[in-house]
């Protein structure tokens, strides 16, 4: 068994790998960028090596720097985690050439599955059913259009080098094809440096079904059953589960067998995932499930498989990389109960899922279920990396039990002042159709409005805040400096209830609190703010007189501030321009997301303080619009 391991990643996956390595008595070496000096993965590893500046392009994506770190620390092996360099065949090769053990499949396997068109061709040859479509080298727009017409609309245009849901366009009718092709190719060239596309039939009632496979260097390949990852937003997984609802034994056997066949076709060693798309219009049927792509690495959602099989997949990876045979044979593996995972993101669903950065002043995730996280209270969410901060993983005897545990935990998430999608996830998991197993990839888009919670507090939360104020008034420390000690609660008259005046955002209310009211939620005072956590959301209340306003967005004088640190990628207005309310003025990129600042009202661009390519800090005034004709 390898004795030391460098983890070429960060965040929750680095922490996850460290946990298993520690149990196996393997020395762990973390790498970190400037922004991650104090990060949890650095604190948890036995050693840590600095590899460069904060942008991933200057640190986590630079293979040479990671190899230098591995040499310096005397590491015997490199685990790439997921994302970053995990599917980079050149890096895998360089690791091996440096005499280190690569915890992953061979560069040849990575290459064979790296491009979606080549992978599909290979699967066709191996007898694995693939989504009907066009995989040709002739990329002339007319030819692509003719192929799409022949396949029949709707079709999906996909960048062959694509990943992470980028470089994909659904085309509903022939008339849209040319425009969609142009924009897909543009995005593919910008994101992957390769604008080649393939065309696929768009599967109706699509469900994303994937199979965990594992191979060793002795020629063994097993599967660890399927996962369902149909709950997606913008082609990105949000909630995943194992097994797949509505999967019967015969269909499971067929799809898992096809996955093993796919892995064997590329002599696969290590952990991999075969992704399929299923047409679920008539339930899950073996003849309606097609190969989509293979991810040649550990997958974000691997914990649900670990929960139902009782196996530690990182341990399997380390054993296989050390030359050991797979820990279990196929017939020794079985499904125990049901598991669900929700991805907790630092983002604000109410603001179009804008990533949220800053210090985690308050960070309490549920107890009782598995939490894989890369941060703790007091840590900072920087704007440089993926906004996923934790995964909540529930396991139950039945699907209902798993859902219940997941919803309960999500509703108890307490995070402040960074925004999260906890309430959004809780609503999705609690949805009646989801409970009934009625999942497909349109589930979230079709319900977006009802899944995104209102950022204004409901009645009950105002009451909770008021009760908490009264409680702190009476039961709190008798410190004169405590702003809550001052008289916040007062009786309107002898018989009436207690009254408390509170402010939330721009709204002030006087709330009557009956003396026997129960304090149902979680409320806690932090400085001059009373925080209420309810159903996964956080609400901040202040006394009517207290100061402080929100940074970012539009101030009433028409100033547009940068809501987070980021890079200006487009400036669509010039000083003196006449602009209309809602018109896009400046676009920022941060945490892989684009965010546009728009004119708050009709007017003139009075000040412009943004240049394309400029790096800006949070709260920078970028544009000021003045009212006028
Ligand atoms: P990526 O590399 O970005 O993960 P995939 O090929 O795995 O790209 O597709 C991502 C998602 O897009 C799938 O999970 C599914 O929701 C949707 N999708 C992909 N192909 C099809 C298809 N042919 N029909 C319908 N939906 C599809
Ligand atoms: P797929 O979407 O098919 O699983 P990708 O390689 O695009 O394939 O996605 C891997 C996912 O992991 C992406 O959502 C990516 O942004 C995310 N990711 C990569 N590295 C990290 C990390 N260290 N912490 C959190 N998320 C990460
Ligand atoms: Mg995929």
TrEMBL record:
Domain Lipoyl-binding: 549-626
Keyword entries, A-Z: ATP-binding, Biotin, Ligase, Nucleotide-binding, Transit peptide
Gene Ontology terms for molecular function: ATP binding; ligase activity; metal ion binding
Co-factor(s): biotin
SUPFAM superfamilies tied to this protein: Glutathione synthetase ATP-binding domain-like, PreATP-grasp domain, Rudiment single hybrid motif, Single hybrid motif
All copies of domain ATP-grasp, residue ranges: 120-322
SMART domains: Biotin_carb_C
Family matches, as PROSITE patterns: ATP_GRASP, BC, BIOTIN, BIOTINYL_LIPOYL, CPSASE_2
All residue ranges annotated as the Biotin carboxylation domain in the record: 1-449
The UniProt record lists the keyword ATP-binding: yes
The protein's name in its UniProt record: Methylcrotonoyl-CoA carboxylase
Taxonomic placement: Bacteria, Pseudomonadati, Pseudomonadota, Alphaproteobacteria, Sphingomonadales
